[in-house]
Write the structure tokens for this entry.
Amino acid sequence: MNRDWFPPLAELISNRAEADTAGALAELVGLAVKHEGTCLIAFHAERTPEVLHHTLEPAGASHYLDRYLAGPYLLDPLFRLSQEALKPGVCRYRDATPDRFRSSEYYRQYCEQTHLTDEIDYLVDMAGGTTLALVVGRRTRRFSQAEVGRLHDMTDLVHAAIRKVWDQHSYSAAADAAAEHLRLTRCFDNFGAGLLTERERQITQLLLQGHSTKSVARELGIAPGTVMVHKRNLFSKLAITSQYELFSRFIDELTRH
């Protein structure tokens, strides 16, 4: 083991503040692989996510994290994965995304703006329906097979550090966060209510998440041609002609209520 690992390992082992532990974890991951930023986020089943630690500059944090937490996190494949009963302990972000995700407006509006070329995510389930995710991002080039291997080899260590950060964490605004998450979730679930049929709303939700026509058909167990008919109908009812307009209508709904 390289001697450079000793100080951040000592920080992880010592009984210090949450920020010290999270910072030491980010430093340790940086010694294993070169990256352009980390973000430790808590995804909750019944309240909005919390960003526990990040290495973004202030302007970047305001632009990416604040907008993300205002509601679009509902479309994030990482958030959707965190809500699954069975999830990997570590995964590559692109492996968890729908087939047309890179063509989705969510990707264009949020993911593409971060300029990340690759991303590795560690996920740890905690009590009470909370999943913690450590995002490790790369802007310059994709992680090599050897680098991915090193990150996988660190899984137990990273998970233990993430659990320690959570043990040191205190949360004081659960009621407000729960109410806001419920509002946003209802907005997503009811988007198009009064105009669209239940099936059309299901298809709308999958389209917003980045699923193609074929993927929507697989998810719902219907024919691709049927999906196309529903898609034309829902676009007509919403008076839109593109995925961009669909996404914009959804964001408007989130901010209007």
About this structure: The longest helix spans residues 174-189. The radius of gyration is 20 Å.
